[in-house]
Amino acid sequence: MAHILVVDDSEVLRRIVVFNLVRNGYTVSEASDGEEALQKLKESTPDLVILDIMMPKMNGFEVLKVMKQDENLSKVPVIVLTAKGGENDLQEGLKLGADIFLTKPFSPGRLVEEVQRVINNG
Q1: In angstroms, what CA-CA distances link 41 with 26, 67, 103?
Q2: pTM of this prediction?
């Protein structure tokens, strides 16, 4: 089954996302900030990353930049899930290589649908 890395500094949000993904049969690992995310990405390449933007140490845009410059990670699809829903953020996220941009609050059902769509098309 597909492996998904969930990166968000909110433990509550990570729990909600992880619960819904595991319930749908995915293997999930977690990171609470950008630095931890990059460390986990070096250890094992997931099939998909769900990435928050506003995080301590290193934000999601910075993580996305690093991922897309790394030949081992550049093809990993990314769903950005953020409370920062401004037009500029959407443009920046897509420009940096995000596949899908979802804003919080989000529907867990819709998130799972998007995950399935990205993984099945990948």
Answers
A1: 17, 9, 23
A2: 0.94
Q: Quick check: 68 and 23 in contact, CB under 8 A?
A: no
Q: Give the strand pairing for 27-31 and 78-82.
A: unpaired
Domain containing residue 36: 3-121
CATH code where residue 57 lies: 3.40.50.2300
The one-digit pLDDT tens for each residue of the chain (122 residues) are 899 999 999 999 999 999 999 999 999 999 999 999 999 999 999 999 999 999 989 999 999 999 999 999 999 999 998 886 677 888 888 899 999 999 888 899 999 999 999 999 86
Structural domains in the chain (count): 1
Q: Residue 99 in contact with residue 78, Cβ under 8 Å?
A: yes
Q: Give me the phi and psi of 119, to 5 degrees please.
A: -70, -40
